[in-house]
Specification:
The chain is of the alpha+beta class and about 375 residues long. It has two domains: about 80 residues; about 240 residues, paralog of FGE (formylglycine-generating enzyme), CATH 3.90.1580.10. About 45% of the residues lie in helices and about 10% in strands. The protein has seven helices and ten strands.
């Protein structure tokens, strides 16, 4: 028979052991849960780290996208500039083509006008005064003293230089007394000269008008729809296609060539001026390009102008004290009648040896 105390002890041990066994089970469950939570925390931490790295990558990509967008915008601007430049190049190419076409048209037009001028008579009547005019064709020539005349006379006509001129028309004759009277009567121009002096030296309507100053000559030319010749035009026309000659008709001056001092000494029937056209015309059909009366030119006079003269259509200096005179007059000796000889006087002078003729620019 067992003892009651022992049984109680055994029962107590079983109870304690059973409680501990139950507590171990709960502890084990808690431990497992803690481990699971720690794993989840670790996983979350890893996920958070991944998210942080992902955010960094996203921020980096955003910055790169921004840079790329800026480059794209820059490329769009560049493309717009290229398109604009391309259009400009096309416009310039079109403009160049248009300019080439215009130049070709101008060339053909000039050739047509040359043919028209060549087909037309060399002489025509132009202007209000009804004066006969000769066509002086476009061309170039050596202007100045080519004969090495004495330096004391010809230093103003050097250096010799090439001049190119457009075509123009020139009066065949010097303006006559009758034509100038017509101008005064029709225009009401206040001529300041003395008609008695005119009559003394040019005693008839078919004689050259004298006692005219530069303003008188330019006023007449304007009324007639013309102008005074430039000095270069005058010399080119006076040469009459002859090259390097002293006079309009050659290298010698005879009594039959012009009205000059030799003929004035009892060798012709005129005491002073001769009627226009009394002597032989030069190669362009122009009369009295030497002798009879000095002729006003449009240019101011400058002794040193030849050294700075432009090569094409020179107009003379911009200012000065004197205006150019060319051709000599009825009482000059041969050296003053040289084509290259240059003279000048005050534009206000009205004297017995000053006359003029007009020119008109030919159509281009």
């Amino acid at each position: 028979m067992r003892k009651p105390g022992l049984m109680l002890l055994v029962l107590l041990v079983l109870i304690v052991w059973g409680g501990c066994s139950q507590d171990n089970s709960v502890l084990n469950d808690l431990t497992a849960q803690i481990d699971a939570l720690q794993n989840e925390v670790q996983l979350l931490k890893e996920n958070l780290d991944s998210l942080g790295q992902l955010n960094l990558k996203i921020n980096t990509l955003n910055r790169q996208i921004g840079v790329l967008q800026d480059r794209i915008d820059g490329l769009d601007d560049l493309k717009a500039q290229v398109d604009f430049l391309d259009s400009q190049v096309k416009v310039q190419a079109d403009q160049d083509s248009l300019n080439d076409l215009r130049a070709e048209i101008d060339l053909l037009n000039n050739q047509l006008k040359v043919l028209v001028l060549q087909a037309s008579p060399n002489k025509t009547t132009l202007g209000r005064d009804g004066a006969e005019m000769a066509l002086i064709p476009a061309g170039s020539f050596q202007m100045g003293d080519s004969k090495n005349e004495p330096e004391s006379w010809m230093k103003r006509s050097r250096p010799i230089h090439t001049v190119e001129l457009d075509a123009f028309y020139m009066d065949v004759n010097e303006v006559t007394v009758g034509q100038f009277k017509q101008f005064v009567n029709q225009s009401g121009y206040k001529y300041g000269g003395d008609w008695n002096d005119v009559a003394k030296y040019s005693p008839g309507d078919d004689y050259p008008m004298v006692h005219v100053n530069w303003d008188d000559a330019t006023a007449y030319a304007k009324w007639a729809g013309k102008r005074l010749p430039t000095e270069a035009e005058w010399e080119y026309a006076a040469r009459g296609r002859l090259i390097g000659k002293r006079y309009p008709l050659g290298d010698e001056m005879t009594d039959d060539d012009a009205n000059w001092s030799n003929t004035a000494i009892g060798k012709d029937k005129w005491e002073y001026c001769s009627p226009v056209g009394s002597f032989e015309a030069n190669g362009y059909g122009l009369y009295d390009m030497a002798g009879n009366v000095y002729e006003w030119c449009a240019d101011w006079y400058d002794e040193g102008y030849y050294s700075i003269s432009p090569a094409k259509n020179p107009l003379g200096p911009d200012s000065g004290l004197y205006r150019v005179l060319r051709g000599g007059f009825w009482d000059n000796y041969t050296n003053t009648l040289w084509i290259a000889y240059r003279g000048g006087t005050s534009p206000f002078n009205r004297i017995n040896d000053l006359g003029f003729r007009c020119v008109s620019t030919a159509p281009r």
